[in-house]
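Chapter summary example.
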Amino acid sequence: MVKNVSKEKTEHVCQLPEKLVEIFIRASSNKGDLVFDPFLGSGTVAVAAKKLNRDHLGCEIDKKYCKIIESRLKDTMFPLERFIKNNSEQKQLLKITSALTQG
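The structure predicted for these 103 residues follows.
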């Protein structure tokens, strides 16, 4: 469990440490895979998946925790490599679209 003095600690009572979850995600998935968490809680699995360049999907019924998850995900950056890949794909698509409309 995450200690009360940790900067990643939320209001959730049984939050797992992000580094521990990252170990599990790295060991059981590859970049670009979908990571599913049926009990999101504080969203640590979703945050770790996002940081590790995985897609994530999960369920949480408590609205209070949903707000925590939303805030944590908003504050979590995508890996730079994902941005570069998506940006270069968009540029390539733009070139193809331009060539088709001009030709």
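To summarize the output: Helices lie at 18-28, 44-51, 63-75, 80-102.
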